[in-house]
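Q&A log
Question type: sequence-to-structure
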Amino acid sequence: MSPLRRCLADDLMIKATGHGHQSRTIKGMTLSRTFLQDIGAKVADKKCFCFATDKATRSFLVRYDWDGQGLQIPSINNFRDIGTHVNLTATNNGKTLTDRMSKARHSTNRLRWLPLPLEFKQKIVQANILPAGLYGCEAAWVNKSCLKAFRAAVANALGPRSSRASNEVVFHNTTASKDLDPGTYILLQRVLTLRRTLSKYPDRISQAKSIIGNYNKELLQDPSTSVLSTPQGPVALLMHSLQECGATLKDDLNIVQPNEPNIDLWHMPWQHLKSAVEEIAANARTRVGTVARQHMKDLNEIDGVIHKKILHVLGPKERKIFNHISSGAAWSEEHKLDIGLSDGKCKLCGANTTDITHVTWECEHIHIHRHIKPYVILITRACQLTSNMACPKPCQVMFKAPIGGRDRPMVRTLVPTPAMLLVFPSTMQMI
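Response status: OK
Response body:
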């Protein structure tokens, strides 16, 4: 069996497997070098390298004299190939992806200080930063510390500028069409890549099921762990990501979660698979927040659909306030008392405070503003509205709340009456 050759641009890869792979590799490499020299090409010897999964083969290739004049080509264990990182050792290594995440983190830090609307920043993260920083994550190990720093940079760019803010809640409070959490992006890409691969190569389904079954048996033999420590290959990396979210991939290609319906990775419609996988990561993120943050205690799950609808109803300013309070970024007087910056009393009403709920719901000074009557603009067609006479013509009434409310006022058509002057005596405007 001759060695396999793959040519991409100016790179040539020669691969041999099975019995006699050493001799076939050397023969293919020698013939290729001779052919390139015969057609006038120059081989970049300093850029050439060898790799092997067998330790004895690696040692042999390192000492081999390729041209009879002492030329030795180094043998390496991991390298960048086709946009991702190939690792041939038993340790976790994804240097190419780590470098990309570091560059993306620096770009995100610069984005944080740009004077752009929050919606624009979310679009930049979704369309540029995440695809660039996590390109090739489907088949490469993700460095945990680098991913943590990358997540923090994205949360700081999209969320409130406070050291107390919870990154888990900040990612819930985005209004983008997709989840902007880098961890969710990695899980989604790994699931979709496996689905695409099996759809294009149906003969690989049995191989994927065999790999999943073998790794699940490995986990059953070691009850002390529920997450693969050294996953190898795209399938194992996907299983690792699901296990970190509290889910398991079975050999029938079903994603199983406690107290949740199973997700059939192979048969579920494509448009529903994305949202189902994002929900797995979002629920896991919520569980992490309940443990790490006191204000999220006993919060087992956030309804993503309702949460998004609420955010879209709020105006830009109200959305920032909502994000600031829900993420725990606000400093209460009790928190300031702990560091010696307050006496523990509310600056507005003077009452003793325990947490941020006082300012949000209990402060009497703020509560007064919630009882202000809605601001009403009455638009009429030369109507004369007095306390003694009603206008018989229908008019458009525009309601707009003074704080909160909608981005666009609500418009209603009705017949104005003198009673309106009693309800809104000082806020009615005649045009």
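Response note: The longest helix spans residues 270-292.
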